[in-house]
Design brief:
This protein is α/β, with parallel strands linked by helices and 267 residues long. The protein has 2 domains: 148 residues, Quinone Oxidoreductase, Chain A, domain 1 (Alpha-Beta Complex); 105 residues, Rossmann fold, CATH 3.40.50.720. Helices cover 25% and strands 25% of the residues. A 5-stranded antiparallel beta sheet has the order 6-3-4-5-7. Strands 10-9-8-11-12 form a 5-stranded parallel beta sheet, covered by helices on one side. The protein has a two-stranded antiparallel ribbon with strand order 1-2. Helix 6 crosses helix 7. About 5% of the residues have low confidence. Keywords: Oxidoreductase. This is Enoyl reductase (ER) domain-containing protein.
Length: 267
């Protein structure tokens, strides 16, 4: 039996150990991926703690990792979109294409979704079997690195849905991003690319995260530890002039009446 190396935990909250495990095969309609990069997400921590029902249902031992990119090494029967050697990015939700939500063009809430690192072994391994490849997997442009592509399938797509599809951010608007980790910083970048004259107010308790938001182009960034009254004063805003839209948790009261608020986080 062919084997590969993978990071595995056998008990929730227990040690994660790199060990030899059976190498998967390319599923029908899918492909076998040689993993080149895989991100680490807070959801991986929740799963490791035993707080994700999909992993509990799958059972242990388990290999996490859902933000992955790599090279196609084998095609499953019926896969037509790709060739061996293709550089691809894998989203963390593999939609079915036939349920009610997919028919409504809402694949991220597919009723029969698969998720590497949750419903199936994930990307902290040398190889991953990826089903439903033609529908879900994407070819990487030559200028995009594996590290960059690994960030696209979860944090950037989640931020895009929050800012553009749910938040409906328009040119000339101001948006507040509360929490500037990987997801929040992705929201900063997407907001700035959304239209002309968009202003982003970034909020975090980490000075390092605030500085990173400024580096990415945020209009202002401030440390939430300063308190609710000092931060708006620093940017010339008043309590009677809240933001038209906000992204992430603990931000609902910061928006104007009848404006938009998108909350992102653990399912």
């Amino acid at each position: 039996m062919a084997t590969m190396r993978a990071a595995v935990y056998t008990t929730f909250s227990g040690p994660i150990i790199v060990q030899e495990v059976p190498k998967p095969t390319a599923p029908v309609g899918g492909l076998l991926l040689r993993v080149k990069a895989c991100g680490v997400c807070r959801s991986d921590y929740h799963g490791w703690k035993g707080l994700d029902s999909d992993i509990v249902t799958h059972g242990l031992p388990f290999t996490p990792g859902h933000e992955l990119s790599g090279v196609v090494v084998k095609l499953g029967l019926g896969t037509t979109k790709f060739q061996v050697g293709d550089r691809v990015a894998v989203p963390f939700i593999l939609s079915c294409g036939s349920c009610r939500q997919c028919a409504r063009n809402r694949p991220t809430i597919c009723e029969a979704q698969g998720q590497p690192g949750f419903t199936m072994p994930g990307g902290f391994a040398e190889f991953v079997a990826v089903p439903r490849a033609d529908r879900n997997v994407s070819l990487m442009p030559p200028k995009v690195s594996f590290l960059q592509a690994a960030a696209l399938g979860c944090r950037l797509t989640t931020a895009y849905r929050a800012v553009m599809q749910q938040g409906r951010l328009q040119s000339g608007e101001t948006v507040g991003v509360f929490g500037c980790g990987g997801l929040g910083l992705s929201a900063v970048m997407i907001a700035l690319a959304a239209g002309d004259n968009v202003r982003v107010l970034a909020v975090d308790t980490s000075e390092e995260a605030c500085n990173k938001a400024l580096e990415l182009g945020a209009w202002h960034a401030f440390n939430a530890k300063e308190g609710a009254s000092l931060a708006p004063a620093r940017v010339g805003m008043t309590q009677s002039e809240p933001m038209p839209s906000a992204v992430n948790r603990a931000a609902g009261r910061s928006t104007r009446p009848k404006r938009r608020f998108a909350s992102l986080g653990r399912r």
